[in-house]
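Q: What would this chain look like folded?
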Amino acid sequence: MSVMLLLAAAYLLGSVPFAIVSSRLFGLQDPRTYGSGNPGATNVLRSGNKGAAVVTLLGDCAKGWLAVWAALQLGFAAPEAALAGLAAFLGHVFTIFLRFNGGKGVATALGVLAGIDWRIALASLGIWLLVAFISRYSSAAALAAAAAAPIAGYLFLGGVPVIAVLLAMSAILIWRHAANIQRLFAGTEGRIGGKKT
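A: My prediction, written as structure tokens:
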């Protein structure tokens, strides 16, 4: 299998919108029609159906991890496997199935990190939990975790090409949270458990 074919397959895998799939399985509204309008686990949770939110979260994480794992199993080197993870992440954020308007990518990014190195994923998740617990803002937690991931990658892996993938994912995650950043500075961002995050 060529690298281009690997990346195309990873992109399509990442494009599967689990928020939409789980909502249909549980008989819920399209998550793009309520709350933040974001097709992700946090918004699906606003439906009140925790099962659908869990399925969304696990599905979005799994596709990021699977892209990296499958690439490694097929004999690709670590940098190419990391690129497959990035392709899956991009598929989630710019899914072809939703006119290139997907989720923010937090769960899928975590899955990619887990595929690359579980220590990076664990460190990023720890930062997310800490910031979420202290601030009660899921967006602030996501931004902190995004900033921490490349640092953790450098500490655990050193200056390898994989760090470029981590930096790219972090930059896109921060960009996707631009509106959240504005609301955080304005003091209008919803806290965890509130109506908007």
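The chain is about 70% helix and 0% strand.
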